[in-house]
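Retro notes (design track)

What went well: tokenization of the new backbones is finally stable.
What didn't: we kept losing track of which sequence belonged to which structure.
Fix going forward: every design gets posted as structure first, then sequence, in one message. First example under the new rule, 259 residues:
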């Protein structure tokens, strides 16, 4: 069994998440056929080596703040293209989480490196979040002219699922680094923030797995099997290309692909 699929499934179990059995088998199969490079020791070692540089690690937190804020807006726009109200509701919740994550990364940066952010830069970083909340957000109703068919929706949700597993792994790598940079006084707060990041990423895997399971129930198992294998390969290729150019080594967000 592949360590990435098993790690994700173990975290889902630890949070008492309900995961469709069909999804479990397909995830394991996809990770066996195309082993995710972000689960390999080489990547973890490279991340830890880079993170020993204070400036690199601080920059990675800033990049994550930007990417989470940008991702939040993209995910909300995706929700507006989904006709299935249940799926759209879950995707909107993901968007709100990412908006909060953007602010959390800025807060983490401020806690760990309080003297290295000028006021103007700090305010710029805070603006990365679109400030979505359960009580304050863009319109919910789908845009009729933008609604996409259910297979396109599921393709995107499958990619979200696999990318959130990658995000979970990065949070697990980030956790001990952030704790090492923390002072004794702020260590509990840093640990609490890390716990929330890990919990949220796990719940994102859960909701997207639920959507995949519901789609399988409609008689689409073979389509899902082929798509999840294809998208795992795509994500692996994206990750390796971006890592080689140092674009995504320390980021929690990678873009989904169309087509």
């Amino acid at each position: 069994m592949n360590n990435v699929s098993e790690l994700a499934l173990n975290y889902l179990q630890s949070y008492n998440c309900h995961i469709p059995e069909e999804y479990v088998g397909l995830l394991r199969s996809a990770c066996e056929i195309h082993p995710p490079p972000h689960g390999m020791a080489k990547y973890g070692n490279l991340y830890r080596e880079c993170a020993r540089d204070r400036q690199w690690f601080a920059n990675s937190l800033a990049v994550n703040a930007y990417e989470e804020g940008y991702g939040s807006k993209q995910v909300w726009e995706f929700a507006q293209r989904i006709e299935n109200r249940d799926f759209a509701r879950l995707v909107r919740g993901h968007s709100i989480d990412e908006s909060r994550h953007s602010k959390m990364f800025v807060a983490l940066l401020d806690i760990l490196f309080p003297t290295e952010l000028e006021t103007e830069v700090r305010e710029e970083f805070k603006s990365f979040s679109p400030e979505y909340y359960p009580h304050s957000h863009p319109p919910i109703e789908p845009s009729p002219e933008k609604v996409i068919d259910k297979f396109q929706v599921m393709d995107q949700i499958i990619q979200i699922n696999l990318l959130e597993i990658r995000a979970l792994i990065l949070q697990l790598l980030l956790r001990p680094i952030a704790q090492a940079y923390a002072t004794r006084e702020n260590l509990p707060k840093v640990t609490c923030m890390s716990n929330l990041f890990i919990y949220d990423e796990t719940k994102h895997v859960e909701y997207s797995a639920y959507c995949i399971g519901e789609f399988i129930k409609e008689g689409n198992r073979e389509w899902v099997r082929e798509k999840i294998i294809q998208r795992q390969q795509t994500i692996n290729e994206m990750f390796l290309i971006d890592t080689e150019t140092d674009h995504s080594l320390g980021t929690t967000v990678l873009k989904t692909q169309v087509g």
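Added context from the reviewer: The CA atoms of residues 90 and 207 lie 7 Å apart.
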